[in-house]
Amino acid sequence: LGNFEEKRMAKTGSSAPPSSFEVHIMGQIESAVFPNEDNLFCQFRLLHGSDWQVIAGMEEGITQVASVPVGSEQKVIWNFPLDITLKSSNVFGWPQLILEVHGPDFLNRDVIRGYGAVHLPLTPGSHVLHVRMFKPLSSSLLQQFISWIGGKP
């Protein structure tokens, strides 16, 4: 390794450290628990700072629609693979995974079931990330009724 380093310095003519680094994300969006919900899909997006550049992989996507298996604990399973490579010159704007879970309402319209976000780990290795999902509520009964009619709760 020492000889390689010396050759690199001689070739570039300087001993300056590299001007950028790469982050490789390999994993999956595995599953979610939404009580009393079925036929759900997850829409994901990778959010990062302006210095970050996606070199390979999909920055956003949608999983398949998954149903709750009979006799399970209300867990939908997607096992959707993620494989993304990013490049940056600094850590500002460290990547986060933004998730939206959607499902049909009683009229089979696509409605949001929950939002969530998680920063990607700073350390290399294998990690299991749990994302708490939230869903905003209408501030009044009238707003709740109007959004229910419009299919946009």
UniProtKB/TrEMBL annotation:
Family: Belongs to the B9D family.
Subcellular location as annotated: Cytoplasm, Cytoskeleton, Cilium basal body
Protein's name according to its UniProt entry: B9 domain-containing protein 1
UniProt key word Metal-binding: no
Family matches, as Pfam families: B9-C2
Entry GO terms, CC: MKS complex
Lineage of the organism: Eukaryota, Cryptophyceae, Cryptomonadales, Cryptomonadaceae, Cryptomonas
GO biological process: cilium assembly
Organism, scientific name: Cryptomonas curvata
Keywords for the protein's UniProt record, in alphabetical order: Cell projection, Cilium biogenesis/degradation, Cytoplasm, Cytoskeleton
